[in-house]
């Protein structure tokens, strides 16, 4: 394992070096939070693919392939569909808004007062997303170094917190590009063909497994529908995803670069399912489907290649974790802390550099909170389900409603967030965290509240909508760091 260890250590050291180099480029709030809004198509595509394809997509995707066969691709496939929908239909408009957070978009659209409550919901989502990615370090470092779970979480989490704190989005962008390359080589170009060959090829796999393993809908229609509802729609509205859209150099970059990343996700989904199917042939009686990835890597890959593929798994986890961490810190600082202190004032250019230190401190604090929460929790699936249920049930309707329906009002948005969020929480307590009903009924409650309350209240002031239209058209040069005041 010495060669494999060397590959991993060099990779981790490289991540820290990228963080240090990124710190030299993060000279303003815009640099630190959205990479100066200067990413071109290649870097944008790579970093967007890196953030959406995390540990759940890699280790979990292979596990679903082990359990269901080719239809196990649906979870990651719906993530790719969501990214494609975001890129084709919404990303250009989102990029032109020149905001830093989803809550700022809501304030801009509805005329203020929607930021804090939506910020709390988005903060909870990004926190739990970062926690689930951090928990995944335990699995990977256990395979690598046979480390204690707590030590593994602290080690992996500390590296991510370190490079994210140093350079913010610039560091994360640079590390994500490396992680994208490592994942592509490790998973698509090495593990996929080796797994298929070791399993005897597709003909042997078909002969040894039930036909259901090769049924595209074998995982079940209800499960596929739930994945679409949670992951496809979740991709449309998550702060971690939007914050990457904000890094695009132009709306064209956001649209076409995101389309390339979404297409890559579809290929990655199929690759994970095929690898899991091959693992089922090789190891038909694993204790847990999620052990399939680590087992096939550990037992079937040659020295050196094994280290690179484990580095690919580590890259998948780190990219999602760092993206969720900076999103969590951005929301906590810009949408909650600053507003509660009454500091949500327009940023002056001369104050931009001073804001870097504040955002850096929030990343550090949120990073410590994420590591502590990850140590305390055990169930990754439950934590991820809570995160996406809150996001979709609480924020999907007011966000898409604001983009698509002129008649939506701030009162309707607040009612939608509140009723949708509380419904999801209550239904998870009643039906269970992993049940499908909470997100189904919570989303319906959110939609009903949004439509009914919006129609029952005065339309949004035309002056607010005029500013919104100007920003959507990309004609406003102003930074959107201040919520639009509500009409008197």
TrEMBL record:
<dbReference type="InterPro" id="IPR001734">
    <property type="entry name" value="Na/solute_symporter"/>
</dbReference>
<feature type="transmembrane region" description="Helical">
    <location>
        <begin position="263"/>
        <end position="283"/>
    </location>
</feature>
<feature type="transmembrane region" description="Helical">
    <location>
        <begin position="152"/>
        <end position="172"/>
    </location>
</feature>
<feature type="transmembrane region" description="Helical">
    <location>
        <begin position="439"/>
        <end position="457"/>
    </location>
</feature>
<keyword id="KW-0812">Transmembrane</keyword>
<protein>
    <submittedName>
        <fullName>Solute:Na+ symporter, SSS family protein</fullName>
    </submittedName>
</protein>
<keyword id="KW-0472">Membrane</keyword>
<feature type="transmembrane region" description="Helical">
    <location>
        <begin position="72"/>
        <end position="95"/>
    </location>
</feature>
<feature type="transmembrane region" description="Helical">
    <location>
        <begin position="44"/>
        <end position="66"/>
    </location>
</feature>
<feature type="transmembrane region" description="Helical">
    <location>
        <begin position="116"/>
        <end position="140"/>
    </location>
</feature>
<dbReference type="GO" id="GO:0022857">
    <property type="term" value="F:transmembrane transporter activity"/>
</dbReference>
<feature type="transmembrane region" description="Helical">
    <location>
        <begin position="224"/>
        <end position="242"/>
    </location>
</feature>
<feature type="transmembrane region" description="Helical">
    <location>
        <begin position="361"/>
        <end position="380"/>
    </location>
</feature>
<feature type="transmembrane region" description="Helical">
    <location>
        <begin position="303"/>
        <end position="332"/>
    </location>
</feature>
<dbReference type="GO" id="GO:0005886">
    <property type="term" value="C:plasma membrane"/>
</dbReference>
<dbReference type="InterPro" id="IPR038377">
    <property type="entry name" value="Na/Glc_symporter_sf"/>
</dbReference>
<feature type="transmembrane region" description="Helical">
    <location>
        <begin position="6"/>
        <end position="23"/>
    </location>
</feature>
<feature type="transmembrane region" description="Helical">
    <location>
        <begin position="386"/>
        <end position="405"/>
    </location>
</feature>
<dbReference type="Pfam" id="PF00474">
    <property type="entry name" value="SSF"/>
</dbReference>
<feature type="transmembrane region" description="Helical">
    <location>
        <begin position="412"/>
        <end position="433"/>
    </location>
</feature>
<comment type="similarity">
    <text>Belongs to the sodium:solute symporter (SSF) (TC 2.A.21) family.</text>
</comment>
<keyword id="KW-0813">Transport</keyword>
<feature type="transmembrane region" description="Helical">
    <location>
        <begin position="184"/>
        <end position="204"/>
    </location>
</feature>
<dbReference type="InterPro" id="IPR050277">
    <property type="entry name" value="Sodium:Solute_Symporter"/>
</dbReference>
<keyword id="KW-1133">Transmembrane helix</keyword>
């Amino acid at each position: 394992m010495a060669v494999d260890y060397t590959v991993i250590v060099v990779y981790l050291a490289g991540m820290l070096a990228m963080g240090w180099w990124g710190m030299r480029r993060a000279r303003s709030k815009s640099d630190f939070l959205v990479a100066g809004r200067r990413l071109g198509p290649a870097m944008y595509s790579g970093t967007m693919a890196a953030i959406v394809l995390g540990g759940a997509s890699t280790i979990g995707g292979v596990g679903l392939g082990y359990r269901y066969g080719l239809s196990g691709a649906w979870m990651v496939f719906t993530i790719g569909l969501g990214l494609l929908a975001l890129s084709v239909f919404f990303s250009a408009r989102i990029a032109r808004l020149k905001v830093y957070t989803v809550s700022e978009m809501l304030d801009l659209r509805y005329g203020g007062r929607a930021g804090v409550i939506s910020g709390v919901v988005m903060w909870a989502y990004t926190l739990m997303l970062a926690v689930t990615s951090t928990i995944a370090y335990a699995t990977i470092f256990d395979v690598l170094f046979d480390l204690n779970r707590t030590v593994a979480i602290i080690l992996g989490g500390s590296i991510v917190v370190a490079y994210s704190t140093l350079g913010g989005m610039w560091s994360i962008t640079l590390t994500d590009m490396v992680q994208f390359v490592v994942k592509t080589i490790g998973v698509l170009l090495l593990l996929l063909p080796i797994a298929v060959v070791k399993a005897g090829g597709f003909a042997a796999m078909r002969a040894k497994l039930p036909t259901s393993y090769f049924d595209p809908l074998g995982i079940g229609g209800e499960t596929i529908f739930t994945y679409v509802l949670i992951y496809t729609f979740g991709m449309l509205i998550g702060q971690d995803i939007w914050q990457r859209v904000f890094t695009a150099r132009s709306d064209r970059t956001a649209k076409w670069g995101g389309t390339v990343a979404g297409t890559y996700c579809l290929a990655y989904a199929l690759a994970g399912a095929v690898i899991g199917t091959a693992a089922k042939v090789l190891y038909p009686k694993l204790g847990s489907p999620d052990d399939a990835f680590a087992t096939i890597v550990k037992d079937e890959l040659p020295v050196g290649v094994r280290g690179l593929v484990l580095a690919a798994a580590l890259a998948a986890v780190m990219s999602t974790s760092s993206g969720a961490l900076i999103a969590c810190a951005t929301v906590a600082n810009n949408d909650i802390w600053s507003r509660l202190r009454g500091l949500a004032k327009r940023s002056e250019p001369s104050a931009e550099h001073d804001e870097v230190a504040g955002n850096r401190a929030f990343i550090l604090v949120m990073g410590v909170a994420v590591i502590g929460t990850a140590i305390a929790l055990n169930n990754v699936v439950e934590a991820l389900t809570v995160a996406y249920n809150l996001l979709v049930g609480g924020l999907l309707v007011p966000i898409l409603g604001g983009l698509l329906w002129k008649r939506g009002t701030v009162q309707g948005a607040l009612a939608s967030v509140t009723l949708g969020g509380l419904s999801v929480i209550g239904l998870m307590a009643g039906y269970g965290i992993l049940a499908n009903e909470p997100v189904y009924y919570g989303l319906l409650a959110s939609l009903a509240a949004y439509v009914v309350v919006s129609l029952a209240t005065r339309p949004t002031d035309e002056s607010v909508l005029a500013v919104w239209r100007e920003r959507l058209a990309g004609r406003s040069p102003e930074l959107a760091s201040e919520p639009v005041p509500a009409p008197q």
